[in-house]
Amino acid sequence: MLFSGKGRHRRPGRATRIATVTGVAGAAVAIPLVSATGAQAASVDTWEKVAQCESSGNWHANTGNGYYGGLQFNNSSWAAAGGTKYAPRADQATKDQQIAVAEKLLKMQGPGAWACAGAGGLTSGGPAADVNPDGGSDGNKTEPQQQSAPKKAAPQQQPAQPKPAQPQQQAPRTGHGNYTVEPGDTLGRIAEAHDTTWQQIYADNKSTIGDDADLILPGQKLQVG
Q1: DSSP string, 29-95
Q2: Exposure of 155 by Cβ count < 10 A (0-12 exposed, 13-18 middle, 19+ buried)?
Q3: Helices (H), 110-197
Q4: How far apart are CA 79 and CA 25, in angstroms?
Q5: How far is 203 from 67, CA to CA, in rounded Å?
Q6: What is the torsion angle, in degrees rounded to the nearest 10, for the CA atoms of residue 36, residue 19, residue 114 and residue 170?
Q7: What's the rounded Cα separation, in Å, for the pair 118 and 182?
Q8: What predicted TM-score, i.e. pTM, was given to this entire model?
């Protein structure tokens, strides 16, 4: 995705969204953007519609394109919104957990973080999703496999292999620039306001932004100009 109305959870180069449907870097003026302030929540039904558009409703989608789950998170956005406390990637989490993390990302970036916000009717304000991420439902349940009859003699158990430690998520860097990121900002929007390009801003602030140029967070200080 290219930059437009919000700090998105998609990479530059995938031509998908502005505030509601489509857009490109620096084109945020084409459609008025919904502010990321105020109440930010959506019903389960709304998130299901967004997922239907994003991934055909497959809450365990993993097609190898770098985006996972029903709502197509990339790993940096999943981690920034707290998703790694449930699973390393979105497609490994339950539907309820993905929706709970999406609610947090909605508060951080607004509905423009999803290309399918318009198709799903996702807006900046709405009733909070009724989900239970600690024991919620699975969006793509499969039929349980038939259990085989117990054997007369239990096989010798192999010693359990230790699980690899999950890498610790680092807190976002604040930076020391002359511009403070506001809710709803993107590099494209900032660049347009300061007569420069988002590529230049990203190059000057990569140590603060990190590897995902789409993910800038309110409060970060960027060097602009």
Answers
A1: GGSPPPPS-S-----HHHHHHHHHHHHTT-TT-B-SSS-BTTTTB-HHHHHHTTGGGT-SSGGGS-H
A2: exposed
A3: 117-120, 187-193
A4: 24
A5: 24
A6: -50
A7: 23
A8: 0.49
pLDDT at 141 over 60: no
Instruction: Identify any residues that bridge with 86 across adjacent strands, giving them in sequence order.
Output: none
pLDDT in tens, 200-217: 988 888 888 888 888 888
Q: How far apart are CA 215 and CA 211, in angstroms?
A: 9
Helix (H) or strand (E) holding 170: none
Mark 141-151 as b/e (b = at least 16 C-beta within 10 Å). Answer: eeeeeeeeeee
Residue type, 83: G
Q: Is the pLDDT of residue 30 over 60?
A: no
Structure tokens at 47: 């998130």
- Which residues of 119-186 form beta strands (DSSP E)? 179-180
Under 8 Å between Cβ of 35 and 184: yes
The residue whose two tokens read 């996702």 is: 122
Average pLDDT for residues 80-89, to the nearest whole number? 94
